[in-house]
Specification:
Elements lengths: L33 H8 L3 H16 L3 E2 L1 H27 L9 H17 L4 E2 L1 H25 L30 H6 L1
Parallel strand pairs: 1-2
Helix pairs in contact: 4-5
């Protein structure tokens, strides 16, 4: 039996479920006014049926790569792999590390380009579909790097640790209702 179990895992942190692609979603301000009211009530049934039909037609579409786009994809993969190897070489020389471009990355790019073409109802990936897919992939990679940098521990000497407050610097107890140190609360 042909099966296709599409699974999407949403997680605020690292997931215990493995996956081949991690997409960080940028949060946006909540919709206000009439838009929020419409969203809370759901989509009208006719529009919902149209959306379902569109998704079903996209899912069933067999999308192929033409010779020209396949050549573009191959050239970009070879170039990206060479650039990543050069970055890795430079990073190793300075004691760091850099990610490599693998065949798994290339297959993800091909799948993404097929999905972009399918979303337009196209039976073949065009150079525009390829460019759109690569723009999406670059945006995803940029967000992933930014998130990794934000969650990385500070490098030594980047920011001095906070100075400890000695008991001799506190002249009087805090006023009622004022925030207290965790150690003060635990001693009680």
């Amino acid at each position: 039996f042909n099966t296709d179990h599409a699974v999407v895992v949403f997680s605020a942190g690292p997931s215990i479920v493995g996956g081949s692609c991690r997409v960080l979603v940028e949060s946006q301000e909540a919709a206000e006014g009439a838009d929020a009211m419409e969203l809370s009530q759901g989509l009208p049934e006719p529009l919902l049926c149209q959306c379902r039909a569109y998704l079903a037609s996209c899912r069933d579409l067999d999308v192929e790569f033409g010779e020209a786009v396949a050549q573009i994809a191959e050239t970009e993969f070879v170039t990206a792999r060479a650039e990543a190897a050069e970055r890795a070489k430079t990073a190793r020389a300075s004691g760091g590390s850099a990610e490599e471009v693998t065949t798994d990355d290339f297959h993800r790019w091909l799948d993404l380009a097929r999905l972009v073409a399918a979303s337009y109802g196209a039976p073949e990936v065009s150079s525009e579909h390829w460019a759109a897919a690569m723009a999406m992939e670059n945006a995803r990679a940029t967000r992933a790097k930014a998130a990794a940098a934000a969650n990385a521990p500070p490098s030594p000497g980047a920011m001095p640790p906070p100075k400890p407050v000695s008991p001799s610097t506190v002249s009087e107890p805090p006023a009622a209702g004022a925030p207290r140190a965790i150690a003060d609360v635990m001693e009680e």
